[in-house]
Amino acid sequence: MSLSLESKCLHLERSSTDGCSHYGAISFPIYQTATYAHPAVGQSTGFDYSRLQNPTREQLEKTVAALEGGIDALALSSGMAAIALLMELFSPGDNIIADSDLYGGSIRLFDNVSRKNGITFTRENISALDETGLSSLITPATKAIYIETPTNPMMNVTDIAAVAGIAKKHGLLLIVDNTFMSPYFQNPLSLGADIVIHSGTKFLAGHNDTLAGFIVTNRADIQEKLRFLIKTTGAGLSPFDSWLTLRGIKTLAVRMEKAQENAAKIVGWLKAQPSVTKVIYPGLPEHPGFAVQKKQARGFGSMVTFNVTSEEKAKSILNKVRLIQFAESLGGVETLITYPVTQTHADVPEDIREKNGITTSTLRLSVGIEDADDLVEDLRQALEEK
Ligand SMILES: *Cc1c(COP(=O)(O)O)cnc(C)c1O
Question: In whole angstroms, what is the distance from residue 228 CA to residue 233 CA?
Fold first, then answer.
């Protein structure tokens, strides 16, 4: 039976639970074990040691692979653990073309760790490049293109299929960090990407209560390398965190829909406020990526970036919000407001930050699933001059 995405959040098409799920438990058990007894010499239950694999983690990995249309997904202890493992696919001398507007932690990893290991990065606003522009960045050392779409926090939209076409032509991997859309709204592998990254901490787990990360691929050669790497380096997600993420994914569809609906209402309201100078949301027809977003995704998501009249105004809003929490992170059921300059993007060099358009009056909202009117009311009192 072929399942829709909503059903895949709750059920695997072919149950892998045989021999694992006792007593008819509806919730997949937490297999809190480091190791597994062998029935006899030369025999295995299928599990030997939890660094290699654990039943709860495997159930989660199969679920995420199914949601993204990959042949395999690896669950890691955080999004950054996933990206760090991914970097082990590359060797000294390799070059990666990376979008200039990325999650700040990814930039910090590339600049301080991957670079030290001999990997070089060419950084451009890929959403603004045509085929000639992107092709001109490719050198014989280039091995991959790394993008987010929409980007964090400037919401630049890149045409995944177009970039995939260029990557294929030049024999490069296309890696897409799909955290902002989640597999509910966008599936980069189906558009030609080779590898999808998720911070599972965000929309997938969805409750601001656990860290998780994923690498998903539809290529057997990459899967084999990644399985060797996770076994060898050991940052696989713990059984309990795997269970929390599985539990979060059960409601992915309804959370994504409600958060998006709330975001649309907030965007409409923000646009009418005199102290708001710019609202950046890919669901706005005036957003430069609107048409591409409509073509390649099933929604616009619930991340909203906006600029206010001054740094003082931005700080006063952060101090005055009550229902909305001033906190890093995104994608959870609670609405959070973030100040990218000092939080998520503090380690991004100032010149790059400015070039990307992140200023001291830029705020980022991760809209949750509260009542939309309550959220608007909170923003109204926070924006008020007093
Ligand atoms: C949060 C985030 C990450 C890092 O994930 P962690 O789970 O915090 O380690 C990577 N990419 C994007 C787009 C993110 O938002």
Answer: 9
**Summary count for the chain: helices (H), strands (E):** 14, 12
CA gap 71, 63 in Å, rounded: 11
CATH fold, domain 252-383, is Aspartate Aminotransferase, domain 1 (3.90.1150)
Handedness of CA 360, 365, 371, 376 (dihedral sign): positive
DSSP element (H, E) containing 35: none
Distance of CA 95 to the CA centre of its chain: 23
- Entry pTM: 0.96
Determine whether 177 is an active site residue. yes
Interatomic CA distance for residues 282 and 294, integer angstroms: 9
Identical fold for domains 12-249 and 252-383, yes or no, is: no
What per-residue string of b and e applies to 298-321 under the rule 16 or more CB within 10 Å gives b?
Answer: ebbbbbbbbbbeeeebbbbbbebb
Strand 303-308: give its sheet, edge to edge.
276-280, 303-308, 362-366, 336-338, 325-326
pLDDT in tens, 234-287: 999 999 999 999 999 999 999 999 999 999 999 999 999 999 999 999 999 999
Pocket lining: 152 vs ligand 1, CB cutoff 6 Å: yes
Task: Report how far ligand 1's centroid is from the alpha carbon of 82 (Å).
Answer: 9
CATH T-level fold of 12-249? Aspartate Aminotransferase; domain 2 (3.40.640)
Q: pLDDT of 334-351, one tens digit each?
A: 999 999 988 877 777 888
Q: Cα of 258 to ligand 1 centre, how many Å? A: 22
